[in-house]
Fold:
Amino acid sequence: MLNYESTTADRVFHALADANRRAIIERLTSGPATVSELARLLDVTVAATVQHLQVLQASALVRSEKTGRVRTCQIDPSGLRRAEEWLRLQRTTWEHRLDRLGEVLGESAADHTTNPEAPSKEPRS
Structure:
């Protein structure tokens, strides 16, 4: 069994897998908000909102600061940048693989066009 190390990208995708946390991120894109404001947005308790925020902070998607009794949260773009980089690398890899598949399929189609009697390169069942 493979043992995957927990990376920042893992934490980001885990954090974004939850609809409430995505709603928090979406709200914070328009500016900072207090924990109480976020709890009202989600229609959950402040304690539940704090738990969501802890996951978002561990993934570097959100940062917060406390002034007196009020905790204010805002987007931390570094986490999203790491996830974007991972996605970009994956997209590049798959584009290269699909390009190569297109070349192979094009070669196969060209073989059949020039010599329709040629045996198929497809594996037999």
Notes: Residues 1-112 form a domain with the Arc Repressor Mutant, subunit A fold (CATH 1.10.10.10). The longest helix spans residues 77-114.
